[in-house]
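From the methods appendix. Each design record in this collection lists the tokenized structure first, followed by the designed amino acid sequence. Records were kept in a plain field format so they could be parsed without special tools. The example shown here is representative of the layout used throughout.

RECORD:
FOLD TOKENS (113 positions):
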């Protein structure tokens, strides 16, 4: 492990992962890349869809539209930048939708170590 930031002093670091989301990397892809080569963005949107259903939250319409459109596009292929532009969407709106999901899931979830 590269760094545990002192977490191991508080409690043992988990050795098994139930779920790993590269939120920062997916946001980078959404903001800077033309393609989702590793599927991080597509996977994150799918995970948020599952998690938001689990905590019984509905994504605001404006965010749901961009997330579903981008997910549909990524289901067909890795390139999404031209799609966003053609649809009149913005990377900023995509980022806002993803960050709304982060906050909503965090606020409505119970986390067990």
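DESIGN:
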């Amino acid at each position: 492990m590269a760094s545990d930031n002192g977490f191991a002093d508080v409690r043992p670091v988990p050795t098994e992962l139930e779920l790993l989301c590269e939120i920062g990397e997916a946001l980078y892809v959404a903001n800077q890349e033309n393609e989702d080569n590793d599927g991080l963005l597509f996977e994150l949107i799918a995970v948020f869809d599952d998690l938001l259903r689990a905590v019984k939250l509905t994504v605001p319409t404006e965010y749901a539209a961009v997330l579903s459109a981008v997910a549909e596009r990524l289901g067909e292929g890795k390139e999404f930048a031209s799609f966003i532009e053609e649809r009149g969407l913005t990377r900023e709106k995509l980022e806002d939708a993803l960050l709304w999901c982060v906050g909503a899931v965090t606020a409505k979830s119970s986390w067990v170590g």
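APPENDIX NOTE: The CA atoms of residues 6 and 47 lie 28 Å apart.
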